[in-house]
């Protein structure tokens, strides 16, 4: 898998900085040692994740958000505060709107301040469930959603 290490956004007279809007098509060119790609893709919007229970937003500049990319991938970002500084296994922490739900359950890595990797499971029913591997709970006050991504479609054969 190729990792994108640098992205150049170029100012152009026909599409100057600041003129883009959600839904606009932009030209994407990717040239890496093992892949060359060129295509047009729409600019997608981030949407706030509706939190459940006693979850909080500890940093308003890093609100929990989601978006669906043109390649039918679900991206997550932001930070969620956990009640009582505890992460409990199988806790409902958020809800996915209908168009943001995977066709099959997806498990995403979600780092926390506990020093342990926790997981978030995105379900076809629209639930975001906190998963604590090997235990019923751990001490943690925040859960990061920065970086996780998953496919929304089902893999072949499912």
Layout of helices and strands:
Elements lengths: L24 E8 L2 E8 L4 E2 L16 E4 L4 E5 L1 E3 L4 E3 L2 E5 L10 E6 L5 E6 L4 E5 L5 E3 L2 E3 L4 E3 L7
The stretches of 5 or more residues where confidence is low (pLDDT under 50) are none
Number of strands: 14
CATH level-two architecture of the largest domain? Sandwich
The assigned structural class equals mainly beta
The amount of helix comes to: under 10%
Q: In sequence order, what are the helices and strands, one letter per element?
A: EEEEEEEEEEEEEE
Q: Would you give the CATH topology of the largest domain?
A: Immunoglobulin-like
CATH superfamily of the largest domain: Phage bIL170 RBP, head domain
State the end-to-end distance: 23 Å
Folded structure, characterized:
This protein is mostly beta strands and 158 residues long. The chain folds into 2 domains: 1-43, no CATH class; 47-151, Immunoglobulin-like, CATH 2.60.40. The chain is built from no helices and 14 strands. The chain has strands at residues 25-32, 35-42, 47-48, 65-68, 73-77, 79-81, 86-88, 91-95, 106-111, 117-122, 127-131, 137-139, 142-144, 149-151. The protein has a 4-stranded antiparallel β-sheet, with no helix packed on it. The chain is elongated and about 55 Å long.
